[in-house]
Amino acid sequence: MSTIRWTETNTPRSAHWHSESATPPPRRVVGADDRMKADIAYRLACESTALLCGATYTTPANYYRR
């Protein structure tokens, strides 16, 4: 099983990666929250950076509405 790694509030974090479709883990993971502006989230997504959001489902959905 693969592991993804990211930094959250200057603390290294990690989690096991599992994909039912055998998709490989993202190369880069960035923590995202309500403070991230939509243009930054969009740029990161276009760079194939995974956005890890620890909030509710509605928070990432709002990135597309900004």
Write the layout of secondary structure elements.
Layout: E1 2-8, E2 11-17, E3 29-32, H1 38-46, E4 50-53, H2 58-63
Parallel strand pairs: 3-4
Antiparallel strand pairs: 1-2
**Helix and strand element order:** EEEHEH
How many H/I helical runs?
Answer: 2
* Count of β-strands: 4
Question: Which structural category do the helix and sheet elements fall into?
Answer: alpha+beta
Summed up, what is this model?
With 66 residues, this protein is of the alpha+beta class. It contains 2 helices and 4 strands; from the N terminus they run E-E-E-H-E-H.
Protein model, in words:
By secondary structure, the chain is of the alpha+beta class. It is 23% helix and 33% strand. The chain has two helices and four strands, in the order βββαβα. It has helices at residues 38-46, 58-63, and strands at residues 2-8, 11-17, 29-32, 50-53. It has a two-stranded antiparallel ribbon with strand order 1-2. A hairpin with a 2-residue loop joins β1 (2-8) and β2 (11-17).
